[in-house]
Amino acid sequence: MDMLHSVILGLVEGATEFLPISSTGHMIVVSQWLGMEQTEGNKAFEVIIQLAAILAVVANYKERFTFKHTRLWCQVFIAFLPVAIVGFLFRHQIKELFSVSVVAIMFIVGGVIFLVTEKVIKNKKASVEQLEDLSFKQALWIGLAQVFALIPGTSRAGSTIVGALFAGLSRKASAEFSFLLALPVMMAASGYDLLSNYKAFSGAQLLPLLVGFVVAFGSAFVAMKLFMAFLDKFTFVAFGWYRIVFGGLLLFLA
To answer: Cα(232)–Cα(223) distance, rounded to whole angstroms?
Structure first.
């Protein structure tokens, strides 16, 4: 992997991981566009930039990591359980779904779901404006919705946000809970990949790994800030249309 590839992939991972547009889908498409094969070194690189995105959440929400928020983290853990169980049990079947055509179709489906969701909740007042008001039942509902993110192109952030909106959370609270829920999900996924591909790090070049890590961290940190600012004034409709257009383009190119 050269330096340009590490910068591009680090930027894509960080910029898309916490937006409802599927980071996995974008990484698959960009990797194929760059002509990159799934070598051991590239697998190691993917683990590193995912870890960078995890640290960006910690940096953005460091005030949440106190005993004062124990109840919230218990809710995050409850929401994490469904995807952890289903993902582990069906991990081999899930890997077989990874293809550009599946990603493209799920981009479009997810986009339509966002447009429908916004239409349904348009005149409804959210029951949860702050995460401190979240119930355990709502957290479990969001966790069940996150299971759909196991289908490539669906988007982990997208499925959790849609689930949260239907559970009664405001747009900003939905996005914030999605950020926090990313921690156990990404730690579990990265940990599994690290154990599966630890030998790849022995042959990986240090400088591209470091550059990718820094770029992924910086872009993820900024993306979360801009996303929350965006939700102060706008809805998720723009993301719905983006998904539909991007998915249609993928189908056309495929």
So the answer is: 14
